[in-house]
Amino acid sequence: MQTLLIVGCGDVARRTLPLLLGRYRVIALVRDPVQAPFWRAQGVLPLIADLDQRNSLRRLSGLADVVLHFAPPPERGAGDPRMRRLLAALRSGKSLPQRLVYISTSGVYGDCAGERVPETRRLRPQTPRARRRVDAEQQLRRFGRTAGTCLSILRAPGIYAADRLPLERLQRGTPVLAAEDDVFTNHIHADDLAMLAVAALRRGLPNRVYNASDASHLKMGEYFDLVADRFGLPRPPRISREEAEKTLSPVQLSFMSESRRLDNRRIGRELRVGLRYAQVVEGIDAAWREINTGGVS
């Protein structure tokens, strides 16, 4: 049985476990020892280490046959030193991972003026966060070529689930852009992203990028309207871009400054995955049912 290392033990990583346990010996890189009992209870071996502490990563040398990487770069800086430390630790072993799957972001494409975006589109990151992701991808591509590791990069857009919906924002009445100023956004349900990550472990092509997105092409305001209507909340007010620049935070504005429609045909063609929620409306309906049957508090 192969050993699989999970790096970045958040929500999506946890959703992969039903697809992994019994097929792999799973090890989770855990920064906070308090989290270790949870992973141990799932049948996963926790390994206490910190991507910000080089010495703590020595135990990763030669440890894993395959790697699922969900951890983000640091919140500041021009690049991703966490990736540099991790790859150095993996590279120091006598055996190297055969496969590595990394969850990146569709933000690496930057603003595409609403155009349809295939994986071959030139990267034009416009935020520091996206530029750090590009640096991480570049490091991984070099590692894949030199180490002979089959690398798959999943560029994910907005991730949603029953416990990851903008309900509080709708309750606050935070505005969105007027229709004439609005931007196209893209979405993927957290369960589908977990499924895509595992599919890439098995069927991803070497040094290959995949748009990990569903097939819906909604503008941001339309997405918020869908959630509001399904949960019986008021639709958000619409304001002009000029008004938004005066009233919204820089972070909120950054998500309203990039418009693109991700082409997701490669995941079906190469990973041979049928998404559980191919359209956002299906995922929102499922979230409503889950919340209203007591599945999520």
Please characterize this protein's 3D structure.
By secondary structure, this protein is α/β, with parallel strands linked by helices. It is built from eleven helices and 15 strands. The chain has helices at 11-20, 36-41, 81-91, 128-147, 167-172, 190-203, 220-230, 241-247, 250-255, 265-270, 280-292; strands spanning 3-7, 25-30, 45-48, 66-69, 99-105, 116-117, 150-156, 158-160, 176-177, 184-185, 187-189, 208-211, 218-219, 238-239, 261-262. The strands form five sheets. It has a seven-stranded parallel sheet with strand order 3-2-1-4-5-7-12, with helices on both faces. Helix 1 (11-20) crosses helix 6 (190-203), helix 3 (81-91) packs parallel to helix 4 and helix 7 (220-230) runs parallel beside helix 11 (280-292). It is globular. The two termini are 37 Å apart. The model has no long low-confidence stretch (mean pLDDT 95).
Provide a short characterization of the protein structure.
The chain is an alpha/beta fold.
As a percent range, the share of helical residues equals: 25-40%
> Which CATH architecture is right?
3-Layer(aba) Sandwich
Number of helices: 11
How big is the Rg?
Answer: 20 Å
The chain-level structural class is: alpha/beta
Mean pLDDT metric: 95
Regions with pLDDT < 50 over 5+ consecutive residues? none
Characterize the biggest β-sheet. 7 strands, parallel
How many distinct domains?
1
Secondary-structure element string = EHEHEEHEEHEEHEEEHEEHEHHEHH
Strand content: 15-25%
Distance between the ends: 37 Å
CATH class category label: Alpha Beta
* Spatial shape: globular
Strand order of the largest sheet: 3-2-1-4-5-7-12
Number of strands: 15
CATH topology description: Rossmann fold
